[in-house]
Amino acid sequence: MNNFTIVLLILVTALITAFIKLAPLFIKIPDDNPIINKFFEALPYTVLTILIFPDIFTSTGTGTFNLIKVLAGIVIIVWLSLKKFSLGIVVPVSIAVIFMFDIVKLFIK
């Protein structure tokens, strides 16, 4: 890649980022639309899932106990999310559950 292509990619990326960040200033979103409200309620969970989910299966190992630990963490996240707990509760509780599984594994060895 030559320098012109790299500069062009940086400029296009900067313009897209600026448009996304400035769009709320110019686009009015109605407050009473239930579809949009549901979308914004689910957005933090979606971003968290996209960032963490692929790493869940690659960082735990291949043993049966590790698979049970991953499934328990997923079940806790889904259950707390369905009960409408905030993200500030869901993340620490799921981390604590997985940490408890690691402590149990230390005592089993």
TrEMBL record:
Kindly give the Pfam families that the UniProt entry links to this protein: AzlD
Name of protein = Branched-chain amino acid transport protein (AzlD)
Oxidoreductase as a keyword of this entry, yes or no, is no
Q: Which organism is it from?
A: Pseudoleptotrichia goodfellowii F0264
Q: Carries keyword Flavoprotein? A: no
- At the top level, the lineage of the source is Bacteria
Membrane-spanning segments:
6-27, 39-57, 63-82, 89-108
Q: Which UniProt keywords apply?
A: Membrane, Transmembrane, Transmembrane helix
